[in-house]
């Protein structure tokens, strides 16, 4: 009976639902809708025609009479634009749907003239479809097909989106990038190793390796018509265009409206200054955009000259003229590749740090060394060992049989992997939607308040029988107070400063908007080797194999060197020494060996020498695959080796993380036979054991492996197989056949030490209540040992291992799962301080125990136990033997339970997870890489808390800036409301002083406060719209009402008070002066109220520029309050208050209001509302299972007390499946 999963992961409701569901049919897509693959994203495409179709019912007859559909719609569009004074066109610019509904009608893709493309983030663009027909002098049009060949077509319909050209394939009903049809190893494929169905068959590329003639002139012309130029062309956008797009934003248009209103209301000085501020703000934005474009152009670099083989001749052309399927001749010197290509012959050593962040040279081999493949095998990332990527650096080439090293071009321009890096920078992911949405909601709330003031103003002025024009101007003036002029610039200051501080610490960010997201991180994932531990490994010992008296294999004693004489004394198999010296991918560059540090240590320990080519002093000379790398043992070991004392490595199967092994074929020529060869394989103990003949494995094999693994050692199992075949057959025999029926040789035990900072950083993150997760390809027990040593497995918690049986099945045919308690760690295992120990005894939303799992078991749970996936993801902190694609799956699983994930890694195996995480940090020497948005030049994990601190600081700075601006707007709104009651307003000079000096200058320095030096156990709110936020803003509003109402009433009640003569537009009044004396200090008080440091930022007093600005402005305020300088009075529109005592009283009112604001914000809001009230609300929602609570919190709340749920869930799922099968059988 066919077995199906209990609960499909795509239809799970909640984290613990176990229901038998009937699969619902997928919603049928509209006839004009299709999908578009754009790098990592899938975009929706909607097809339209510009025709009569979009019309309202009552105009149908009118449209038909004129019968000039398209022309009439265009005329109607422009009439609407003119009648609405351009607002209709503006709204259509903001909302593409409004534009589409008037101009277009739905159409099939075959007939479409325009496309609306919507990316996963909701960003829409309209693209016009271009049309190309065959031209006689250029020959027929040819386009690639899914079969890997070119087909003639009469015409081609295409468009360009984000620098990529897409062609319509009517028979397939898809818009496709022709480069994907040739070879779809996109960035997503390169990282996740996903093989798409429309990739070209690999055997075609292998067959083309023998074609050394190159493209003909006609083929070149034909391909140029299909593919874009091989140039990462980035034309600098004209400054006028950048400025025009900038000022079309809602904020700047609102500023235009406000300034126009102010000029009409005789606020010329103030309006002029706001114009200057707005122009400066727009100029800074335009300058930033231009600088970003220049940085990208510098990253792209200039074009180079390359040698191509065309029509059988070698020609030199500019790299921009390269087309797919060209043959490029690679130079022997250092060279940066201008395109992606497949190596046709020879061997190439490249540095792929730009892609992976890992600077260890990588050896690329030709297509001739690829395994045999049939028509069903398609080009994918499994063939990366034959692929050279654009932007990577060729360090060395080795010729093949006297021929130059050649490669066949796969992808050009922006379709290359370097092109995708550039596009990812040019088109970054938008900022967090929740924060943006909350900001607009809050502005809407302020707008509502302003609306109330708008109505109040109209009523007051009607009562005073003022003119209609004056009523309109005064009432609209209230609306302009809602949006402060410096809001956009002030909100970006925190991120700009955080990014600059990160750069000072050698941490580079290609997408600064992600910095705010880092403030919401709650789980940090780490690779092990090279990230938590040192890159290099120390050789610990060797456990070889020998035959006992019964002829069975057994382990020898530990050997602490690779001396064959000592092994021979123990009757051990000496081939393990030869394997250690030969089974590697090291290469010699400029006389020095380069490669994996582990392999360098083993070769150095063996004492063997490596000679490449016929003459080791000439590394770039002819290289024949039958005369390959020569390795020789030391002279003193000659009695243990062949008579000529040398071995030849004729073929290498590089290490593959998915296969968990590498192998080499070594020739041992002798006088008797030249066909004696031996295959050496090394890899993980589990994988090598599965390839070995069982009789060659010692009985205690797994016990020994587990013993070393539990002690934290890294184990490499070594095996061999003797074969007799000629060179040609050895080179062509598939890898899987050569790596079968191996004889086990022994274990190499390596010691991998933690980096010095690892334990301290993990403790720092743990105390900050940030979950730490290890994701590694190493053995489970080794991973557990390292996890204990570095503190990921806490000393105060029990740890359990989830394993599966390879032989036992449950009633449903699924592999049985087991839960075993791991060896406990004592508190002495982790050196820590009292603070860490005290924290470990608390539970702050974390489980009381921890789990660990290996990749194969994780795959079984993912496939056979999907109902357990969320729980396992929420509890497991150690993931071992994880393949690169599984690492990315884990990141996705963590995100699916609403966790914000940071991933830190250093190598190619981590690229998938780094890209999938909310914030990925690549430990690399480059300033930017495809792997992650963050790149740290300091190769340890201290960058993780640094980025999180800066993220938290930037996030709370953004929140504080919004609250500061809101408080300022509401305070100014209240002042205007009080003055409107007297028929007056704030003077031009006072407006200027408040908005420019008191607010703008202060706001620009508000974000200069540095991030805290210590991570807080409580994370900042992950969204703006919280109860504490609204309590803060509206509580301050109440305080402001009191602080202004009392002085207002007090001044008006004095005998010396001079009332407003109620002359129209009179702003020089005593009541206006009194209100300014009170509020000018209140605005500065807001800066202190919302500059709270602890726990996410340092104290406000450390922000020296802000403190200096506040001090200077406060002094100037006091000068204006307590002096009667005529120049100041005239400029500010003051009517001096005759009583100095009253001036002191007004200042006291401001100071009392300031202290009330501080106490309210820091005591009531921050301690009572933000801590107790919001925690009470959260716990209440958590008990109710409210969906507003993140899924991982609900999971931990339910199962965090102990692991008993694991067996219960298995039993429940088992019983429900039995009932399901019973019901189905009865039916």
UniProtKB/TrEMBL annotation:
One of its GO terms (biological process) is intracellular calcium ion homeostasis. Residues 70-168 form the P5B-type ATPase N-terminal domain. It holds the Pfam family E1-E2_ATPase. It is found in: Membrane. Keywords: ATP-binding, Magnesium, Membrane, Metal-binding, Nucleotide-binding, Phosphoprotein, Translocase, Transmembrane, Transmembrane helix. One of its GO terms (molecular function) is ATP hydrolysis activity. It is a multi-pass membrane protein. It catalyses: ATP + H2O = ADP + phosphate + H(+). The keyword Transcription does not apply. Its EC number is 7.2.2.-. Signal peptide: none annotated. The chain crosses the membrane at residues 61-88, 231-255, 267-287, 439-459, 471-496, 952-970, 990-1008, 1029-1050, 1070-1091, 1103-1128, 1140-1160. It comes from the Eukaryota. GO terms for cellular component: membrane; plasma membrane. Residues 305-425 form the P-type ATPase A domain. NCBIfam families: ATPase_P-type, P-ATPase-V. PANTHER family: CATION-TRANSPORTING ATPASE CATP-5, CATION-TRANSPORTING ATPASE-RELATED. Belongs to the cation transport ATPase (P-type) (TC 3.A.3) family. Type V subfamily. This is Cation-transporting ATPase.
